[in-house]
Amino acid sequence: MYASEGYTHAQDGFSKTKNIDFLKRAASQGKLYLDVVALPGFNEMKKWLNNKQYSFGQYENGLKLQGMKITQDGSPQAKTAKVSHPYLTGGLHGEADWHGTNTQPKDDFIKQIKIAVDAGLQIFIHANGDATIDQAIEAIEKAGIRATDDRRTVIIHSQFQRPDHLEKYKSLGISPSYFTNHVYFWGDVHSKNIGLEKASFISPVKAAVDNGLIYSNHTDFNVTPLDPFFVMFSAMKRETRSGKILGKDQRVDAYTALQGLTTGPAWQIFEEHRKGKLKVGLLADLIILDKNPITTSTDEIKNIQVLQTIKQGKVIYQQQTK
Length: 322
Fold this sequence. Notes:
Elements: E1 9-15, H1 17-28, E2 35-40, H2 45-48, E3 63-65, E4 67-71, H3 106-118, E5 122-127, H4 130-142, E6 153-157, H5 165-172, E7 174-178, H6 181-194, H7 196-199, H8 205-210, E8 216-217, H9 228-237, H10 254-259, H11 263-268, E9 286-289, H12 298-301, E10 306-311, E11 314-318
Parallel strand pairs: 1-2, 2-3, 4-5, 5-6, 6-7, 7-8
Antiparallel strand pairs: 9-10, 10-11
Helix pairs in contact: 3-4, 4-5, 6-9
C-alpha cells in the first residue's frame, strides 16, 4: 500500500517491543523493501532502554530505531486532546468545563523526557492540545535542550498550537509534524468544539515556515488515507468537508506542501544527506507521476496518480495498465 502511494519510507509511530521483534525478523529475512523507522513506546522503556538487542540510529537491513515516542494526550475530534480553554461543546459525556485529558501526570512525563535525553535518544511527542504542547515545551526546557544542541525533538500533530508556541519551538529546536488532513476531515467539528479562531490555526504550516521551522506533514494512517497528494491538497486548500476554508492565511504553495512530505521528514530523522531530494549522492528513491505536482492546480492535485515507485534504483511498484 505504501509503495503504491509513492512512499519509499514508512514510520511506525508507536512501536511495542513485540512488533519491533517482528520487524527485526522481517528485516533479517530481507523482506523490507521500504526503509522502515520504528519509534519504541515510552510505556515499555524498561524493556528496551540500554538493551543491546534494541540499538538506535543505524539501519539494519532496512530497519532503524530512531527515538522514543511518548503519547501525552488524545485526539481533538474525540475531545481527549488537553486544551487550556474548555471545549465549547463540553465533554463526551456532557461534562462541563472539559479540558480533555493527559495520558499520564505531567511530572512523570517530564521525568521520562529527561531520562531519554540523558540516554542520548531523540524524542517524539504526541501532543494535540495546546496545554499538552505547553507541557512538552516545559519538559524539553527542563531537560536542558536548546536548538543549538541539534536534538530535533519532534512534536507530532501539534494541532492546537498557539502562535506563541512558534518562537519556543525555534529556540528549543522543536520540529512539528503537522496533520493538515484534519482540516478536511474534522475542520467543521473543531470549529464547533474550540471556536473558529483557534480552529483556523490548526497545523499552521505557513506560520511555522515563516518562523524558520522545518516541518513534516503526515496522514496518521489509518486515521486518514495514505494518499500524499491529498496531504498536499489539504495544506494548500485548507478546505473542510462542508466546503469552508479554514485558516486561509495558513495556505501554502505546492513546493512548500511538497517539502512536508520529502525534505522535512528526512531532516527530522537526521537523513537529509541520504534522502528527501533529487541530488547527486542521495538515494535513488524516486516516484513517477502522471502530472507535475508543482504545476498542477490545487483542486486537481489530489487526483495525481503514482505510475511507478523506485527504491534505491529498484522498481517496487508499477501501476498496472488497463
